[in-house]
Amino acid sequence: MVNPSMLRSLRSAVARGSSHLARRGYASDAVPERKVAVLGAAGGIGQPLSLLMKLNPLVTSLSLYDIAGTPGVAADVSHINTRSEVVGYQGEEELGKALEGSDVVIIPAGVPRKPGMTRDDLFNINAGIVKSLCTAIAKYCPNALVNMISNPVNSTVPIAAEVFKKAGTYNEKKLFGVTTLDVVRAKTFYAGKAKVPVAEVNVPVVGGHAGITILPLFSQATPKANLGDDDIKALTKRTQDGGTEVVEAKAGKGSATLSMAYAGALFADACLKGLNGVPDVVECSFVQSNVTELPFFASKVRLGKNGVEEVLGLGPLSDYENQGLESLKPELKSSIEKGINFANKS
Ligand SMILES: NC(=O)c1ccc[n+]([C@@H]2O[C@H](COP(=O)([O-])OP(=O)(O)OC[C@H]3O[C@@H](n4cnc5c(N)ncnc54)[C@H](O)[C@@H]3O)[C@@H](O)[C@H]2O)c1
Ligand SMILES: O=C(O)C[C@H](O)C(=O)O
């Protein structure tokens, strides 16, 4: 059932798109043509994400791919009276056509967690799925921006990088691990605790996308609030465990899908704005990075016409955040190496 907050999210997604077009001073048909492909479009994330991308006026062609179920999803979404043409593709033999000409490829394909599992427990199944999808991306749309949602993101992004390197198509500016849901959660939880309007809140979240590798920087949160150390610790823990909170509440029926679709749509919209030359588009994402000694790291990233324009630094950290940063490095390093080794062995 659609609840009021989902409706508000949908309305604001539409409003953001239209007000963006109005601000830029052109009618929707003057915006560049952009093809977005969703791989895993029939899944729990894929369906609402497809809906939200259909609502995005920056998209002209929406390509919905899955191993099964996409004709129905595509037929359904295609009846919505917005700008993009929708085509569904089903099965591996249609993957090439689904990808050809894509500007942005969003990947929510793969299995979700059940209670008691870590994201790394998904590696054995999802690593192979991501590898084969990225092999096809290298072949059919090597210049696309890739938004990786499939878990474990800390390993699937390095897998994608290795696949693209082997194919000779790797461009570090075009590969993104989607960590936007961590930012969405940090903003929501902070607004609740600090009693400030959630729409005004900004909180960077850095590191990776699993447990303690998720490091929200509440010392940089705005609007400023006078929260004590215990509050900051509790907010940090809740943000790090946000995914598990949903997995447990769904009790075996998967992980976050609706909030993830919202977060994935926000991040894809930022990528499209960057491609279209909108200035100062900044989002957190897990990308190739020199911010720490680790080869991939999530931090604020400025998006532009070629993808990543600039990976921004961490800014001043509190002692608590500095400790968190040092504690997350060994786990993040080993998840990255696991991905690299998998891609190079198999
Ligand atoms: N990055 C994040 O913040 C974040 C948040 C939530 C979930 N996730 C991850 O997203 C993934 C998907 O979650 P979900 O809840 O949508 O799962 P789901 O099982 O509901 O849907 C996954 C979809 O992927 C499809 N799929 C499987 N193999 C495929 C292939 N080779 N090619 C194309 N499609 C394929 C399935 O048919 C299914 O429709 C999981 O790995 C989950 O852990 C990430
Ligand atoms: O927690 C999960 O397994 C899914 C996702 O990574 C999330 O953060 O919700």
UniProtKB/TrEMBL annotation:
Record field: catalytic activity: (S)-malate + NAD(+) = oxaloacetate + NADH + H(+)
Entry's Gene Ontology BP terms: malate metabolic process; tricarboxylic acid cycle
Domain Lactate/malate dehydrogenase N-terminal: 35-177
Active site feature: H209
Any single GO CC term annotated in Swiss-Prot or TrEMBL for this entry: mitochondrial matrix
UniProt keyword annotation of Mitochondrion present: yes
Name recorded for this polypeptide: Malate dehydrogenase
Organism of origin: Senna tora
